[in-house]
Amino acid sequence: MVHGLELGLGCFLWLLICCKVAAQTDTQPRIINGSVARVEETRHLVSIRLRKHDNNFGSGHICGGALIAANKVLTAAHCLYNNGRKRYRRPSELIVVMGTLNRYEHPNGTIVSEVSSMAYMNTFSPDSMRDDVGVLFLRKGLIRPNPFSVAPIQLARQVTPAGRVCQVAGWGRTEQSTLSNILMTANVSTIREQTCRSIYKSGLLPGMMCAGRLQGGTDSCQGDSGGPLVHEGRVIGVVSWGYGCAEPGLPGVYVDVQYYQQWIDERSGVARSRTSPGLGLSFSLLLGLLTFTATIQYSCRYKR
Ligand SMILES: *[C@@H]1O[C@H](CO)[C@@H](O)[C@H](O)[C@H]1NC(C)=O
Ligand SMILES: *[C@@H]1O[C@H](CO)[C@@H](O)[C@H](O)[C@H]1NC(C)=O
Ligand SMILES: *[C@@H]1O[C@H](CO)[C@@H](O)[C@H](O)[C@H]1NC(C)=O
C-alpha cells in the first residue's frame, strides 16, 4: 500500500491537493465518521464563502477557518487561491460567516462579515502545498464579545506530542453528502512525525503534520480545508490535504500552527480594517512588500 502510494504521490500530487476545498461540481469526500458539533466547542469556527455563490445563504461555502482575534481568521492559503485561474481571490469575493452551526441558517447572533484584506506567504505553492497558511481580516468581525455563539480561540504555542486526541470540525463532505448542512466534528489523534514521513515521504514538508486514525475511518475531507485542529482548547493545526479521505494508513495532513505562530502573530489587519478599501489595499500592499507576504488583489474562481 505504501509503495503504491509512493508512486501515486509522484503522479497524483495534484489530486491530493484538491482534496479538501469544497467544489460545487465535485462529488467526493468530508468530516468522515463525525458527530454533530456543539456550540460550546466550536464558537471559533467560521464558514468562508464565495459571495457570488452565497445568494442562497450557505451555498457559497468553500472552506472553514478559525477566529483567532476579533477580526482575524486563520485558514489555509489554498482557500484563498483560485486554482482554475492560477491566482489569488480578491478579498471582495469572500464573505465570512460565524455563529451558526447550520450553514443555511442565520439565527440571532450570526455574524456575516466582508473581508478587508488577507495574507499568505509568497512561498505558498498549490502544487506542493508548502506553507499552506493564510489569514483573513474581517471588516466587521466580532463587534462585542458574544460568548454564546462566537469567540476567538488561541493558537498552540508548543509542539503537541503524538497520540493526543484532538478535534477537527467542518461543513465538509460527509458519508452522505458533498457538504454537510450542520457543522460536524470528529476526534483524531496527532501522529508521530516519523510515521507521517514514512507514509508521505518527500510530500511531507516542514510546517506540515499528520493527524487522523491510522486504521482509517475518521478524517477531515473536502470542504473542511482551512478549519482548525484543536487540542485542549487551542488550535494546533489547519486542515490542508490528504490522500483521499479516511483511508487506512493515510492520515490527514495539517498545517502545523506552532511552526507558523510567529508569522501568524505578526500579521495585523487592525490598521487596515477601519480605512477605506483603497487605502486599506495600498497599505496592505506596502505591508506585504515589507514583510515578504502579499496581499491578494486578483480575481479568482473555484478549483476544479
Ligand atoms: C433576536 O433577538 C432579539 C432580542 O432578544 C429579539 O427581539 C428578536 O426577535 C430575535 N430575532 C429572531 C429572528 O429570533
Ligand atoms: C472525543 O474526545 C473527547 C476528549 O478526549 C472525549 O471526551 C469524547 O468522548 C470523544 N468523542 C468520541 C465520539 O470519541
Ligand atoms: C467512528 O468513530 C468511532 C469513535 O467516535 C470509532 O469507535 C469507530 O471505529 C469509527 N468508525 C469507523 C468506521 O472508523
TrEMBL record:
Q: Which GO terms describe its biological process?
A: proteolysis
From the Swiss-Prot or TrEMBL record, state where the protein is found.
Secreted, Extracellular space
Q: What is its EC number?
A: 3.4.21.4
What GO annotations for molecular function exist for this entry?
serine-type endopeptidase activity
Peptidase S1 domain boundaries: 31-269
The membrane spanning regions, by residue number, are 279-300
The entry's family comment says: Belongs to the peptidase S1 family.
Q: What is this protein called?
A: trypsin
In its UniProt entry, the species of origin is given as: Drosophila guanche
Classification lineage: Eukaryota, Metazoa, Ecdysozoa, Arthropoda, Hexapoda
